[in-house]
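Exercise 4. Each item below gives a protein and its sequence. For each, produce the structure-token representation.

Item: Zn-dependent metalloprotease (Actinopolymorpha singaporensis).
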Amino acid sequence: MKYRRAVGGIAALATVVSGSALALAAPSYAGTMSGPSFLPKKPDSTIKVLEGSDGDVTGIAAKGSAIKLPNGSSESPKTAARTHLQNFAGKLGVDPAQMRTVKAQKVDGGNTVRMQQYINGVPVVAGELVASLDKQNNLEALLGKTAKGSVQAPKKTKLFSVGASRAVARSYVAKKAEVSAAKLEVKSEGRWIYNPSLLGAPGAPVNRETQKFQVNTPDHAVDYTVFVDSGFHTVALAVSNNHAALKRDICDLNNKDAGDLEGAVCDGSTNKYTRREGQAKSGIADVDKVYDNLGVVSKWYASYAGLDVSAFIGGDSKTLKASTRTCLSQLQPGCPLANAFWSDGIQQMVYGDGVTGLDVTGHELTHGVTSHTSALYYAYQSGAINESISDTMGELIDLAANPGKATSDQGWLIGEDEKPASPDLPAPLRSMKDPTKFDQPDRLTSSMWAADAQFRDSGGVHTNSGPGNKTAYLLTQGDTFNGYTIRGVGLAKAFKIYWTAENLMTSGTDYKDLFNVLPLSCRKNIGKTGTYITEDDCAQVDKAVRATELYKDPANAAPVATPYCTAGNVKTSYVQTFDTTPSDWSMAGGAGLTKADLGFDYVNTGKDALGLFTQPAYSPYPAVTSSTATSNQKTIPAGSWLRIDYATLFSLYQPSSGTTAKLEYDDGSGIWRNANTLPGSVNPGSWTKHDSHGWASAKYNLLTLAGKKVKFRISASGLSSDGQASVMDVDNFKIYTCS
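Answer:
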């Protein structure tokens, strides 16, 4: 076939994702809003299985009291966690042999043990489990997600070298951060397996081998973690490690340009200390305010989390460091710096002139805490939760220090004490009480959810922090929202709950996971000394996570549920499953069967599916600019519908512009018309980027075509702007009536 030669490059490399072990698992009705199941699939007197609305298992939790170790054995937390994992791996669908223990962390009431997944000896990005144990190492919960299936790497001759992948990572970050590639340092951290579904990221939910790199300028003003696909020579994922600080060292740069972050380091040498721990006030307003605010934040973490923040995130010196009145011309033109942020690279806070509010300090310092606990990836839903956790901790501390704020119009605002730094950075920035005032969603189904198709905000991390923020407001202060009346548990209890959650989340935690983590974090504190948390408090947390619909799919870019019939039974007049090459369809360009011809195992049911792809020139293969599949004429019975189980357009990783897919029909007139004009259509296309709403179905009302002889044509055309392949996946094309 003509298209076989055109797709040779992609087909040769596609062995990475081919094989029956990687069959797509998403159901065609994914995305229904019926809510999670709170019962295990099989009756069990000791545990409940935690599920999202799509049926994915996200963990198990003990029913009532914690599950005891066999024979009452007394083991170390790490050993106990392994024992519990062996006992319940089947419930989670996890292979215990793939899990390696990373670390144990003491928390109030016991320990948490973090485990990392490896497949064929290679770690999996966000493939993690956390075991929550009581003081006797009995099991309270096992939480997290792991990748399913195996990875079949391409032949070594098809793999790109580490050097070539390094160049891809360097080039990507240089373009993303608008810096010279020559200024970037690139450190390889070996092979990692990446599956976008573990982060809720765009891309096919399959296991791919990548090379991991840390890419940064010497001063860490630009600091990214980048995963480069070893077969397709493209960036699979890139996340920033700089998120927009008892022992304290403060340096004041007095609004003199430091150039870059290296010039802003507060170490007593690069910049002299202006105020150190125990010293008297400096007389410089920003220095003294930052000094005091770091102290307030540290006291809260010490009092309510038992955590010495200085030692925890202060690096080798175990000191909270900060530079105030900073100007960084290589980071932001003009002076003063219109922001404040925590930098993992130099392990300190950096403040612009006047951007020194208590909630800002609490927010940014919590980014440092997060990077040392759950290490939430700063992308998509995990990144939105990362932002929300920082907002939450910062605001809880701010309200505790300013009790009159909570019930005033200044309460639950982020950055309300700052002077507006610029028209692009107003103050305040967000409202936790009502996120919609700042165009943020207040629940998962809000139309304000940001799909962020161009990855301009790391997948919508700031906008989509809204549901997490609203949840924190509801469970802390209480209110009536979305049919639920919630009694707030107060600042101190909320802080304890969220600190516990930091230790129960994995790096890929999404809102469906948080729906389970927050109630479990509350119940882990019941009866513990100094918490005063009760079961009724946790009942309020239960209501808060339901009110904000954390268990549902986002309104935008979510899978669309498209049932065949709302009433009656399905009577089929024509069906094409694309399990074998169809004799009544003609194909051209980059069209074929996904598994047999293209090497991709994206199948809803049966053995195969239709795939249409486009791809820029890929040496030594030419570009594939269009693909079409056209049916013979079909006579349409009266009252007919057309449904496609999969009508999905995707690129391998980050969304990219340039490719459009559509379904058209010719009713005998010789004119091709877009099927999205047919009345009563659901998810009808045309599809661009990820506007097919995930792995979703499509449905069309053929009322106006009754009795006609109709041809159908599915096409994909146009090239991605970033060198990636785009694929339109179609399975189970059915014409039917409901009777």
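Check: The mean pLDDT is 82.
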